[in-house]
Amino acid sequence: MADDLDWERLDSRYADDLILFRSRFDRLRHPGSGEVFERLVLESVDWVNCVAVTEDGRLVMVRQFRFGIAASTLETPGGMVDPGEDHAAAVQRELREETGFGGGTWSYLGAVEPNPAFHDHLCHHWLAEGVRPLGEPRPGRGERIEVVSMTAAEVVRSARDGEIRHALALSALSRVLDLWGTRNAEVAD
Amino acid sequence: MADDLDWERLDSRYADDLILFRSRFDRLRHPGSGEVFERLVLESVDWVNCVAVTEDGRLVMVRQFRFGIAASTLETPGGMVDPGEDHAAAVQRELREETGFGGGTWSYLGAVEPNPAFHDHLCHHWLAEGVRPLGEPRPGRGERIEVVSMTAAEVVRSARDGEIRHALALSALSRVLDLWGTRNAEVAD
Known about the structure:
Helix content of chain A: 10-25%
Strand content of chain A: 35-45%
Largest interface: A-B, 85 and 85 residues
Number of strands of chain A: 11
Oligomer: homodimer
Order of helices and strands of chain A: HEEEEEEEHEEEEHH
């Protein structure tokens, strides 16, 4: 069945540079009707974030102003992979820059497609256990970040209260913490 | 502390129409240094998706070609809210159009910010229990969708295998199913 879902790409054109993205318009042929449609792709590098846990079991979180919603958010540390950089290196660099924390044992939690309808990038999630302060944070000139130390219970409460609403932060956290008290029993198998 | 994180917006300009988004560039003043930076905001309507469960406990899922990653994905039903439409109405309309299913009892699972760094929209998650086929699917001319009926265990397996990687589909599913076998015990409180 999967072949029958695939659209044929006829051509692509690039439009404005969008700082974070290169915008591309593809023309594609519908696999059923043959009709041609124009569709947007926002090309970018991959993103990374991490659930960073200190030696005494506290989570290292960050608050920062987010331009899309014009408000500050509570999130997991993370950011964009530099061109040519490995995502494992990127996430350790971002944690160090944003919070001053590092070290510990790192495990890969997997990747998600933030929105495959128009984004081509992945967000890679990592768990860092036993991190410790290595020095002062080193945010970029264009960043302003507050470091927040929280218990696991406080993080779960912040998710349930709606204080943490960043889908990619919740995605990383959901692989380590039972955020929602899920109700498997209600869905028969 | 939150006030200290807020950036002052100096002005905004709109750029290309991006089919799904209106692209806006804001100039903002850093709350610490006073330096001015230009930042991208992609304005759009909100999105919706749902965990749709039939009367016999199966999940109604969809496969479709996604232009951002140029591959087909396995997802929860959903889409964009029409201008002026309520998200509760939008999600029921999208389920009906994409799958032909409807009816049942609907509960709101909450909203997430898909990426507040540059998106201004929310994605609203719904649970629909006891849905049933009401007729044929009615996809739009620019859509091609396969309806897939799965058990909860198959959905969990597809998440763990990486077949479901759409962050917003996983976000909705994670509020109903224990997708990851979370390890709360490893994070001391």
